[in-house]
Write a structure and sequence with these properties.
The protein is α/β, with parallel strands linked by helices. It has a single domain (8-246), classed as NAD(P)-binding Rossmann-like Domain (Rossmann fold, 3-Layer(aba) Sandwich), CATH 3.40.50. It is 41% helix and 15% strand. It has 8 helices and 7 strands. The protein has helices at 23-34, 46-55, 73-81, 107-135, 156-176, 197-200, 203-212, 225-232; strands at 14-18, 38-43, 60-64, 89-92, 138-143, 181-188, 243-246. The protein has a 7-stranded parallel β-sheet, with helices on both faces. Helix 4 (107-135) runs parallel beside helix 5. The protein is globular and about 45 Å long. Belongs to the short-chain dehydrogenases/reductases (SDR) family. It holds the Pfam family adh_short_C2. This is SDR family oxidoreductase.
Amino acid sequence: MKADDSIFSVRGRVACVTGASSGLGQRAATVLAGAGAKVVGVARRAEALEQWCWETQGDCASVAGDVADRDGLDDLVGRISAPFGAPDIVIHAAGLNTRQPADEVTAEGWDATIAINLSAPFFLSQKLVPAMREKGWGRIVNFASLQSFRAFPGGIAYGATKGGVAQLTRAMAEAWSKVGVTANAIAPGFFHTELTAAVFDDPERAARNAAQTCIGRNGEDADLDGPLLFLCSDASRYVTGQVMMLDGGFTAK
């Protein structure tokens, strides 16, 4: 079997990755481009996004935009589809964690967290699914979290949205899998990203998190690659509605 014929291949597929300007979103975009997909990275920070695209080997394009701006979604989808055509794969990695304790949660912080973490993955997918349905093939990969299932201090708004993402993933699978569009989620443990900077700025806390895993360490960027390619390829064609814990066994203990 040639490499391009592998059931794990994404070569020639068009992928849209939100949150591609940094962190695991950027890693996902880079991995897909390196595997031969045509990747459109989406984020609000145009300069960082353009820098990623310039540094990345493979077919890629950058689209600056706010996935939480529902009024601008039609325009955003048009710009996403312009470079390579309508996406076959959409990765929802854009996220926000205000880290506000329950007694200090503001309406603004709550609404912004829901808009980016929960509403955007649904409404962007809703816009992209019709083209996937026409092809009879599509992949939606949401980003869930440890907080989809565990409560952490200062995480009430974030945890509520990530619990919602787990159920959203199941509901997407029920709605669209029969037309060839699978929906799954990756739930990362502790990876060193902008979103988790506060955790890793405290070495003792980071060490405690590592000790809580079965493997004995926190996540590394490369740990995302295999699960991502699996969920984006034909290898996962009978897998849908699932949340894959990418946490080194944190939730197993």
